[in-house]
Amino acid sequence: MGAVVEPVELETPRLVLDLPVPSDADLVTRYCQDPLFEQYLTTPWPYEHAHAESFLGEHVPAGWTSGSELTWAIRTERGGPLLGVISVREAQHEIGFWMGSEHRGAGLMSEAANAVCEWVLSGGIGGASTVFWRAVEGNLGSAKVARSAGFRHIEPENPTVPTRDGRGTLPAWFGVRETVVDPRAEASWHGILGERS
Ligand SMILES: CC(C)(COP(=O)(O)OP(=O)(O)OC[C@H]1O[C@@H](n2cnc3c(N)ncnc32)[C@H](O)[C@@H]1OP(=O)(O)O)[C@@H](O)C(=O)NCCC(=O)NCCS
Questions:
Q1: Mind listing the domains of the chain with CATH numbers?
Q2: Atom 15 (ligand 1) nearest CA
Q3: What span, in angstroms and rounded, lies between the C-alpha atoms of 167 and 186?
Q4: Which of 104, 106, 166, 175 has the highest Cβ tally under 10 A?
């Protein structure tokens, strides 16, 4: 990346992924009150409306312009209410996501994550042959999304992520998704998720 990137819209059978815009601020503010975000994300905590305004008005457009982070709103129809957010960072093509609590458990994030990976790996980001995922250890919902989107669980030498304040580290899970889903991907999750029921 590193060049000017025009926002790209993606579609899946049930979803439209498009640009998050300032009018999404009320919903983003409400969703980001979720205690799971304090535990598992680095979104500001406590989360205030001004955070959503700067995220939508500055961070998201700047990320597209520079190519440093491409962020999509997850909606069921164009112009409809925002359900969640998904992004991919320039650094290591790392994917990140959250879904508003009332929209979880319907497979929507798995569908969105798969679409973003397919787009990145089919030329959306020139030269990308892998997408990385990481989550604080214990984030089962996130690991299940990664499994459903074709990631393979990997164990790097130092499997940690920085704490929210950047002063320490937390144990973490890591995954990688390749252009062709690795046949060992599903089984690689058995250790932490058990066999799929
Ligand atoms: C993780 C998250 C995005 C999942 O969103 P979702 O739309 O529910 O995802 P899906 O419906 O595609 O669910 C995938 C699987 O996770 C399960 N799941 C969802 N949330 C879960 C949770 N909190 N705990 C355990 N399992 C969960 C679903 O039942 C589904 O299981 P399956 O694969 O056996 O069918 C959502 O729970 C969330 O926003 N969490 C807080 C933010 C966060 O942790 N983001 C990821 C940071 S790495």
A1: 10-193 (3.40.630.30)
A2: 144
A3: 34
A4: 175
